[in-house]
Structure formats: C-alpha cells, structure tokens
Write a structure and sequence with these properties.
By secondary structure, this protein is mostly helical. The protein folds into three domains: about 15-110, Rossmann fold (3-Layer(aba) Sandwich); about 120-175 and about 210-305, Serine Threonine Protein Phosphatase 5, Tetratricopeptide repeat, CATH 1.25.40.80; about 305-500, Orthogonal Bundle (DNA Cyclobutane Dipyrimidine Photolyase, subunit A, domain 3), CATH 1.10.579. Helices cover about 50% and strands about 5% of the residues. It contains 20 helices and four strands. The protein has helices spanning about 20-25, 30-50, 60-70, 85-100, 120-125, 135-145, 185-195, 215-225, 250-255, 260-275, 280-305, 340-355, 360-375, 375-385, 395-405, 420-425, 450-460, 460-465, 470-480, 480-500; strands at about 15-20, 55-60, 75-80, 105-110. The strands form two sheets. Strands 1-2 form a two-stranded parallel ribbon. β3 (about 75-80), α4 (about 85-100) and β4 (about 105-110) form a beta-alpha-beta unit. α10 packs antiparallel against α11 (about 280-305). The longest helix is centred in the middle third of the chain and has 25 residues, at about 280-305. The two termini are about 40 Å apart. The chain binds flavin-adenine dinucleotide and iron/sulfur cluster. Iron/sulfur cluster (SF4) binds near residues 342, 421, 431 and 448. This is Photolyase/cryptochrome alpha/beta domain-containing protein. Its cofactor is (6R)-5,10-methylene-5,6,7,8-tetrahydrofolate. It holds the Pfam family DPRP. InterPro entries: Crypto/Photolyase_FAD-like_sf (IPR036134), Crypto/Photolyase_N_sf (IPR036155), DNA_photolyase_N (IPR006050), PhrB-like (IPR007357), Rossmann-like_a/b/a_fold (IPR014729), UV-DNA_repair_photolyase (IPR052551).
Amino acid sequence: MANIPREPREDVVVVLLESVAKGASLPWHRQKLVLILSAMRHFAASLEKAGHRVVLRKAPTYAEGLATLAQEFGATRVVATEGREQDMVDELERARTQLDALGVSLVLREDRGFLATREEFATWARGRKEHRMEWFYREMRRKHNILMEPDGTPSGGDWNFDADNRKPWPKGREVPPLWRTEPDAITREQMERVRGWSNRWGTVDTFALPVSRADAKAWLERFIVERLPEFGPYEDALVHGAPDLLHSSLSSLINVGLLHPLEVVKRAERAYREGHVPIASAEGFIRQILGWREYIRGMYWHLMPGLRTANALNAPLPLPQWFWAPDGEAYNGTTGGACEMRCLSDTIRQVRDYGRTHHIGRLMVQCNFATMLGVQPAALSRWFWAGFTDAYEWVELPNVAGMGTWGDGGALASKPYVASGAYVNRMSNYCGGCRYNVKQRTGPDACPMNFLYWDFMDRHRERFAKHPRMRMMTKHLDGMDADELVQIRTQAQQFRESLSYDG
Ligand SMILES: Cc1cc2nc3c(=O)[nH]c(=O)nc-3n(C[C@H](O)[C@H](O)[C@H](O)COP(=O)(O)OP(=O)(O)OC[C@H]3O[C@@H](n4cnc5c(N)ncnc54)[C@H](O)[C@@H]3O)c2cc1C
Ligand code: SF4
C-alpha cells in the first residue's frame, strides 16, 4: 500500500492477489478470511475511485500470480513491499526467480507499517545480553517524541504506570457492548463465500469488524472517547463473555493496514494532552503499540528461524481438542468432550465466535493452561495463527513461543507466565460459576489450574530453584506434604490422559 503512487499513473497497475496456497495452509478462522478479503475489495474500490488501474486476482501462489500478471501487462518491473514474515520473504524470492526468467525485475520496498525499521531494531539488539521491552520502548518514546516533555523527561514524571493498572472489573458494573460495523454488500458476499469452505474454523455470522478506512477510523475515535480513559486500571481484568472489555479491539485493523500505528499513538497522546485521559491510561495504551508491537516484531526477526521450533521446557503434547471445540462439538470428525473449566472454555468460545479475546485471556488463561499442561509451543502457535483475526506469524509466534509459553527459554520474558487458579479468581468473575473449586489443589473438584501449576513447578523445580522470581514457589514445594505432592502429580497426569488431542 505504501508503495502505490499518490497520483494515478497510466503505466502503473496496482495488483492485489489472493493466493490459493496461502488460503489452504491453515484452518483459518472464517472471520479472518472475511476481514482480509473484504478489506482488499474495499481498498481496490477506493483506488479505482481515485483513478488508479487496479487488478484483484486469485492465483495458485503469490509468485505465480505476479509472474502471470507481469506477462499479461507486459511489465518490466514489479514493485512490492518486503515480506512481513518468513513465508512471504521466501515467496517473494520464488517470485524473483520466476520474474527473472521473464526479464522482469523485482524491487522490494521497506514495510512502512511499523515505527522502527528492521535494521533499527537489529542495531538496538546487537551486543545486548538482555532484550527487555522497557528499554526499547523508552528509545521509541524519544525517537517519536511521544509523551515527552520539552526538557527530555517523560510526561507524568515516569516512563511506566503499570503499577496502577491491576484492577479487577467492579462487581455489578455493566460490561460495555461489543462494537458492530454492519457488513455491507461486499462483506456479505465474502461471508457467503467463506461460509462453505471446508477445513476452516469459527463462526462467520457474528462478523462485525470494519473493513474500510473510514469505519476503522470511527472505531479508533470511539475507543478514545468510550474506553481509553479507563483503559489502564482494567487492562488485566477478565469478565465472562467479554472479549474486549475496555481494550481497543484495534489490533486486527492495524495489522491488516486499515490504521497506521503512529496515527493511533498520536491520537491517544492528543487525548491526554487535551485532558480527556489520565496519564496511566494513555501511557499504558501507547506502550502497547509503540513498545510491545514494535518490540515483538523486532524479536520475531531476531529469533527466527529457531523460534518456530523453540521448546525450552521440552513440552511434549499436541493441542487439546478443546481449543477447536470447547463445547464438545465435533471437529474433524471427532469430539473431545465439553471443557468444564469456565475460564478456558469461555475465552476459547470468544475466539471461535469473534476471532479474538483480549491479552489476559490469551496469556493468563489459554497460554497459562497450555504451558502447565505441557503443550508444544509450535502446536499452540498454529492455533493462535489460524484462529485470531489479528494473527500473523510475525506477531503471534513471539507472543506464543516467547511470552506465552517460555518456549524461547527467556529471550522475551524473564520468567514463564504461569499462575494457579488464585490469579484467575482475583482478576475475573469466572471461578464463582465454575464446576471446579478454585480453593482446592487436589480431589475431584480441584481447579485444574491449581494441580497443573504445582505439577509444573515440581517438574521444573531444578531449573527455577535459583530464579530470583520463581524460587519462592519452588521453596513452597519443598515444604509441601509429600503425600499431597504425590497426589498432585497423579492428578495432573490423569487429567492429561483424560483429554483428546489433535491427531
Ligand atoms: C499468546 C498471545 C498471542 C498474541 N497474538 C497476537 C496476534 O496474533 N496479533 C496481535 O496483534 N497481537 C497478539 N497478541 C498481543 C495482544 O494480546 C493483542 O494485540 C491484543 O489483545 C489485541 O487486542 P486490542 O487491539 O484490544 O489490544 P489493546 O489492549 O487495546 O492494545 C493496543 C494495541 O497494542 C498492540 N499490542 C498490545 N500488546 C501487544 C503484543 N504483545 N504484541 C503485539 N502487539 C501488541 C496491538 O496492536 C493492540 O491493538 C498476543 C498476545 C499473546 C499473549
Ligand atoms: S475454578 Fe479454576 S478452572 Fe474454574 S474458572 Fe476458576 S481458575 Fe478456571
């Protein structure tokens, strides 16, 4: 997109390609397909309206599509944006080979959908033993002059207000409604198209994301007014049936190119400067985009290609069927029974029905459960990549194999994000209505998050015994009654064996 001439040119054809191979490479969520296919069509229409020559085509692969169209239009040069992730980098190299054979050159331009270049991040990362997000984020604040005072100090007197952002959702307070952009005729056509596609996942009828620039900007404005003022304090809160709560739900729109990250960051900063939003919320939100999003993308390239198979904790298991079918519905001809863990089944249902759940559901419920159970990071990553409307390998893989499962052995997070049921109980309203008892560690009603947590600590006791932030827990294990520990190990193993897994 960034490489399209501002003014239409007779000698330039803008090409948008649908790759059949890419579309069949994973069991993609139907809403993710609708988002991409419909956004492409809206974009094509807006370019045509502005006078550009546009071609939207389906091709067996991107490389073949480019070669065919280059011949059809007698092109001498193809200009494309550099690959955002490894598969696209490889595909563009295949395209280069095919185009070379036709005497057509391929020129790759920088991806302008980020606020740091790959080279910039690589320079920052080079020679550092530790790559903590916080240090990179501060450099980005200075570079883009966001939330900075004229004397070079951070606005509000601090770089980070995370300590203020840890509140559960108040009891009895109404949950804000999910936003809906009514699907127009173009979107409805794509919904019908993907509805019948086999080997795809997820509900299509609830699709309500923006697919045009105007609607995406309207969601940004709505977020700034309705949710940003209280974004910070409730960032970590979980509520049954609420995929967004006060989160922005903008990730899918930023990642697909409908919003630019800098416009989102600047809009949030303006809301703070104009006095509509407290610093803790403005900074907390800006850190997600200027800090986390850029850092995650940088770390993806820093850790590839090993990140795809990273499994530092030697987790052995495939993905439990529950992740595809939380209500015990048939999936790929089998059923794994209904998931009775209220936290896990609800967050998975949100993904199945909307293609999203917010950060804490992903990290502290889904990844937490999978890590403690012993699911291979690559198996979990495949689910995240296919199932979320905002997921692309460059962003889901570091989040899953790094932050979520500690598969990278600590390159991203100093310790695994594992927690017992007590955390879920503190931050959510899940446990009250759950069939399990969050206070029990063993026994038929014990919360699985509890025995899996202590079993995890036990299995990795040696590794974490000297870890400054984990040794308290391993010490607690040392003091645990021997019979209880045996019971925990047995119950965790029986639980593992009771589940159905991806074949
Ligand atoms: C296991 C796991 C998998 C994830 N997979 C993805 C993914 O595939 N795609 C994706 O965009 N985000 C991913 N995230 C990050 C984060 O959870 C989502 O960006 C966020 O939940 C999207 O909802 P939102 O737009 O309401 O976010 P908000 O909470 O409103 O945050 C604002 C924006 O900050 C950015 N952001 C925040 N955290 C991260 C992060 N850790 N990495 C990258 N960007 C971030 C997003 O662009 C997001 O829109 C993942 C996190 C975890 C723990
Ligand atoms: S009791 Fe355990 S399984 Fe049930 S909702 Fe709470 S944490 Fe989840």
